[in-house]
Amino acid sequence: MQQNDGYAGATKAELLRSPLPTPHWGQQRGSAFTVRAVTSINATSSTVLRALLDTSKYPAWNRFQKTQLAEGLTFTEHIDMFGNGKPSGLVKMKLLMTALEKLESNSVEKTDYKVVWLGKGYPDWALRSERVHAIISNSDGTTTYHVFETFSGPLALLVRLFVGPTLVKRFKQWNEELGNHAERGS
User: Cα(43)–Cα(33) distance, rounded to whole angstroms?
Assistant: First the structure.
């Protein structure tokens, strides 16, 4: 995966106090926030998509999310908040894939995708989360991978205060490890 000091090619992750809208929940207010990361990957968009969707291989390459497919489009994500691949600090979260879309493009050679996962681990009135993955083909054969998750509801403030900075680190780690895995051909 490309690494440098600038934005292009390097993984960038951040916490936004002004949350990004999501497909299911739209624009969120109050204590809502977004964690996002972006990176450039030296692989095709279809290779990145395959790596993202093959949750059975997560344990082999990913130290942040130890995911197991539950049934159909719902899976349980086992998140290691320490990012070291060890059982300490594990948090469970159920996710439902609500969208897998091939995005419109003006170019025949370019294939872009959007994948959306809706968090189902808490009652919606307490904590809502939605993760959006955008996989964008570049003209040079690389792929730009964007992921963001918006949290809202009364518990979002506590999530931001207690684990917000850790989530930023883990999203950065996720992007780097996904990129490395995709570049090896997943």
Answer: 30
3-state secondary structure 32-67: CEEEEEEEEECCCHHHHHHHHHCHHHHHHHCCCEEE
What is the per-residue pLDDT across 110-137, written as a single tens digit (0 to 9) for each?
789 999 999 988 899 999 999 999 999 9
Q: Among all chains, which residue has been given the structure tokens 């939605």?
A: 130
Angle at 42 between CA 150 and CA 138, to 5 degrees: 70
- Burial of 186: CB neighbours in 10 Å, binned 0-12, 13-18, 19+: middle
CA distance 13 to 10: 10
Sequence-distant contacts of 125-129: CB under 8 A, at least 24 apart: 125/153, 125/154, 126/153, 126/154, 126/155, 127/151, 127/152, 127/153, 127/154, 127/155, 127/156, 127/159, 128/25, 128/28, 128/152, 128/153, 128/156, 129/93
